[in-house]
Amino acid sequence: MTKNQAVLSWVKEMTDMTKPDRIVWIDGSEEQLEALRAEACSTGEIVKLNQELLPGCYYHRTAVNDVARVEGRTFICTPTKEEAGPTNNWMAPDEMYDKLWKLYTGCMMGRTCYVLPYSMGPVGSPFAKYGIELTDSIYVVLNMNIMTRIGQKVLDAMGDDPGFIKGLHAKADLDEENRYIVHFPQDNTICSINSGYGGNVLLGKKCFALRIASYLGRNEGWMAEHMLILGIEYPDGDIKYITAAFPSACGKTNLAMLIPPEYLRKKGYKVWTVGDDIAWIRVGEDGRLYAVNPENGFFGVAPGTNAKSNPNALASTRKDTIFTNVVMTKEGGVWWEGLDKNPPHGVNNWKGEPWDPDDGSKGAHPNSRFTAPAVNCPCLSSEFENPKGVPISAIVFGGRRAKTAPLVYQARDWNHGVFVGSIMASETTAAASGAVGVVRRDPMAMLPFCGYNMGDYWQHWIDMGKKISQQPKIFNVNWFRLNENGKFMWPGFGDNMRVLLWILDRCAGKVDAVETEIGYVPKAEDIDLEGLDYTIEGDQKFDIDALKSILTVEKDWWKEDLESIKAFYGKFDPKKIPQELWDELAKLEKNLA
Ligand code: GTP
Ligand code: SPV
Ligand code: MN
Fold first, then answer.
1. What is the phi-psi region of residue 536: left when phi exceeds 0, alpha when psi lies from -120 to 50, beta otherwise?
2. Which residue has its alpha carbon closest to ligand 2 atom 9?
3. Which of 456, 438, 348 lies closest to 399, judged by CA?
4. What ligand is nearest to the CA atom of residue 198?
5. Dihedral sign for Cα atoms in the order 537, 539, 544, 548
6. Of 52, 225, 529, 579, which one has the greatest count of Cβ atoms within 10 A?
7. What is the average per-residue pLDDT within 479-496?
8. What are the residues whose beta carbons fall under 8 Å from the beta carbon of 341, sequence distance 6 or more?
């Protein structure tokens, strides 16, 4: 399928080591994929769902110990520890290769190795980057077929270029103790072993499009970010684009596909999805920032997705979708917590055990996922395939904070915006293994995804700012403020549009704001509450007073935060943190004094 010597010799070297019984090159043809689906069905790896309800859809259960990204076992193996920085796990490349090569030796015996050429970004576009993933999992091949562009066309576009990203994935024994997700940025290489879960094994996604790409981006003068991309269409047809970085399971897919409140829809407002998880960003000829989505599908959180919260995501999953760790119904349909109020009875939970929905246990894993083709999305942007990307008016950071962070605030300028991104914090979620609900610093939502020293990454942000003659404005949002009883104060979901419109009004210089210690906060009356009908709990309706309370900057909470920010910055070699950010920290401290 290719004459590319670098590809051929690497495939030979890796398969000589892993010793599969068979090597199958994936050409991307529907016949080949269909044969793989049939084979995976025959072994029980996937289950064909009811084709009348869900045409082209399949069901998969992962091993019970393998349901989320494993940050503790994810490594960035740069030549020195300093290049990986204090927020990444590190091991010397030689030592790590040694360890991995031992684990890989013979691990595909009795199995088939699939050689999967894939493209991040539209094939042939000047911004696309190509990879080859070797994997012994049909589930991985089928997911990558949805999430990326795969097959012969990618090899053709690669030609003789040796600069592809090498990815080796083996399920091995799914042994947690020997599970490794390892990146060698200097070698363009990713190694994944002993896992079969999404972000650990779909190597185009977090491993390539964020960790390796962030490293490439710094060297080549562009950015790889954990960001959704959406367009807001005004009644006059003008479309403005926003990117937003929220940590895992903090609302990117939902925001990317939001449906505006009815009064705005009636006026002609629309929202278009360009991407829901990753943005590759470059400076265009006109000095503006342009973003492309390197992916071709959505690997979305299932729980909480329903006809009201995210009808576009739900519609995207009605055909040609793979469901992982949800509940399969007797009819061969799917269910998860938050889909509707009628859990199926007499079926098994995501683990395959008999499950009683009335005993309070969950049927679907909290990090259960759908893998849906982007083309299924009813609000997919017509710019989705545009190789030049879309021009960005605003960059939004955000996290899941019960308190402290107000609903929205605006940074004073680019450097302050980089500071706002660098001090992002969020409560941990089920998207990664470990405790849930613990506040941790997660700069730019990249803590688990930055492929080099986070201090150098911040410097790259500062440097990019100097190259952009028309800088986007930078904001921070928090949809997750809780009241004393632990209830969400802000309605969220489609109503987030009200905040996005304020953000775009600020970008257009159409609305004033209040300057506070942390940046610009809206005047409550400038966030349009028309038609909003949300009850926080009991008889507490959301109104302008509730809005005011979540727009308030509580100095005492921020003083606490300041201490935690200083402790976080304190983990770095002070010289690694750009002086601009030290200056912003000093300003914040002075403002809060
Ligand atoms: P990853 O795919 O892990 O990167 O997650 P994501 O950032 O795309 O998060 P997603 O949109 O899938 O949302 C995760 C969870 O947050 C779901 O359970 C949603 O129902 C919930 N959620 C999303 N948006 C909102 C919101 O505006 N308000 C509230 N209260 N919950 C939200
Ligand atoms: C995330 O955790 O941010 C995800 C899911 O988008 S995974 O692909 O597992 O990383
Ligand atoms: Mn994500």
1. alpha
2. 199
3. 438
4. 2
5. negative
6. 225
7. 96
8. none
Question: pLDDT (tens digit, 9 = 90+) per residue, 199-253?
Answer: 999 999 999 999 999 999 999 999 999 999 999 999 999 999 999 999 999 999 9
Q: Which residue's entry shows tokens 């003068």?
A: 221
For the question of residue 250 being annotated catalytic, the response is yes
DSSP H or E run through 498: helix 496-507
CA 476 to chain centre: 17
Mutational test site, ligand 2, from 69, 139, 203, max ligand atoms within 8 Å of CB? 69
Q: Say if residues 138 and 104 touch (Cβ distance below 8 Å).
A: no
Q: Are 220 and 281 in contact (CB under 8 A)?
A: no
pTM of the model: 0.98
| Ligand 2 pocket check for 205: Cβ under 6 Å | yes
Burial class (CB in 10 A: 0-12, 13-18, 19+), 562: middle
Burial string for 529-545 (b: 16+ CB within 10 Å, else e) reads beebebebeeeeebeee
Which pLDDT band holds residue 272 (cuts at 50, 70, 90)?
Answer: very high
Distance, in Å, from the CA atom of 220 to the CA atom of 147, rounded to the nearest integer, reads: 25
Site of tokens 């302050």: 416
Angle subtended by helix axes 93-104 and 5-18, to nearest 10: 60
Which residue is closest in CA terms to ligand 2's atom 1?
A: 248
Tokens of 456: 């150098």
Query: DSSP string covering 345-386, please?
Result: SSEE-TTSSEE-GGGT--SS-TT-EEEEEGGG-TTB-TTTT-
Extract the tokens encoding 127: 């911004």
Q: Are 327 and 355 in contact (CB under 8 A)?
A: yes
CA distance 182 to 78: 10
Q: How far is CA 247 from CA 22, 225, 373, 400, 461, in A?
A: 39, 11, 22, 8, 18
- DSSP secondary-structure letter at 150? E
Return the half-sphere exposure (C-beta side, CA atoms, 13 A cut-off) of residue 232: 24
- Rounded to an integer, what distance in angstroms lies between the CA atom of residue 233 and that of residue 240? 7
| Backbone Cα Rg of the chain | 23
Contact criterion met (CB below 8 Å) for 87 and 451: no
